[in-house]
Amino acid sequence: HVQLVESGGGSVQAGGSRRLSCTATGINVRMYSTYCLTWFRQSPGKEREGIAGIRRDGDEYYADSMKGRFAISRDNAKSTMYLQMNSLESDDTALYYCAAVRLGAQRYWGQGTQVTVS
User: Could you say which of 10, 24, 35, 74 has the lowest number of CB atoms within 10 Å?
Assistant: First the structure.
């Protein structure tokens, strides 16, 4: 049973940085490496939005508003994905989720970690 657990959220001042982690359990390293991994976020009153993703080959992609500020990475040996967030703004306040999906399998979601920028 695959589970995703996010960590690293908290309160941060505007202009600051934060690194989020998303660790998968219930899956071996070889299988984990085949998953496409994505970060989403949802702010109160707004729809969930995809902000960054990283494919199995390490290819990264970002929402336009995140380019240059956020960086996604993965460490398959640790079954963990990261999101480095810099120059944080109040609009970045949200619940951040990670997701994992591969061809022919269901998408798995984490429970989310709250980031509050003030």
Answer: 10
SS (H, E, C) 32-95: HCCCEEEEEEECCCCCCEEEEEECCCCCEEECHHHCCCEEEEEEHHHCEEEEEECCCCHHHCEE
Reported as a single tens digit per residue, the pLDDT across 77-88 is 999 999 999 999
33 and 76 Cβ atoms separated by less than 8 Å: yes
102: phi then psi, degrees, rounded to nearest 5: -140, 160
Per the CB < 8 A criterion, the answer to whether 96 and 9 are in contact is yes
Dig out the tokens for 58 from the structure: 């390490």
How far apart are alpha carbons 107 and 8 in whole angstroms?
22
Number of C-beta neighbours around residue 30 at 10 A: 8
Do 12 and 117 touch, CB atoms closer than 8 A? yes
Confidence of residue 65 (pLDDT cuts 50, 70, 90): confident
